Amino acid sequence: MDLILQFKQNAQKVIDSLKENLKSIRTGRANPSLIENLLVETYGGSTKLRLMELSTITTSGPSLLVIAPFDPSILADIEKAILKSPLSLSPAVQGNQIIITIPPLSAEQRDKFVKLIGSTVEQKKVNIRNQRDDIRKKIKTQFENKKISEDEKFRLEKEVDNISQRFMEEIETIKEKKINEVLEV
């Protein structure tokens, strides 16, 4: 497989993973992605499913989440999972639905989430740097084994560095956007 293509695909997986990780970081606004991946133990603890597999999750205004389980008998299981989660949310059962009011973030919570975003982003940057270094080693090995010329080696290394730089810039853009969402009052 082409080394450059392999690097691009792996780096894109890192970006996708970052976006997925950041979805679960709370902002001051109601968003179904905040809770959709919560694991819920249902049917007497025999099954563990993600909340999005058990219900529809919608927003009602900027600060309300409405969870409508497909099977109303699991309302209590969903409520328990939300209470046990690290999100500090208070679910309220109303009929066959669960309503969650997303409280505004305190300054302290905002700072904590900004730090969490920073560390998550840094892990992903390290991941991309490691991948870049691995690809550069492979290019060097190909050159040493006389499979590519010196010019080709330099061209590939430059291309890998440029691609790496583009992914780093994309990560920074994602980071800034998420931080702005968290800091938005």
TrEMBL record:
GO biological process, one term: translation
InterPro entries noted in UniProt: Ribosome_recyc_fac, Ribosome_recyc_fac_dom, RRF_sf
Ribosome recycling factor domain sequence ranges: 18-183
MF GO annotations: ribosomal large subunit binding
Record flagged with keyword Protein biosynthesis: yes
Key word Nucleus present: no
Entry keywords, A to Z: Protein biosynthesis
Family: Belongs to the RRF family.
PANTHER family on file: MITOCHONDRIAL RIBOSOME RECYCLING FACTOR PSEUDO 1 (PTHR20982:SF3), RIBOSOME RECYCLING FACTOR (PTHR20982)
Name used for this protein in its record: Ribosome recycling factor
Organism name: Candidatus Roizmanbacteria bacterium CG_4_9_14_0_2_um_filter_35_15
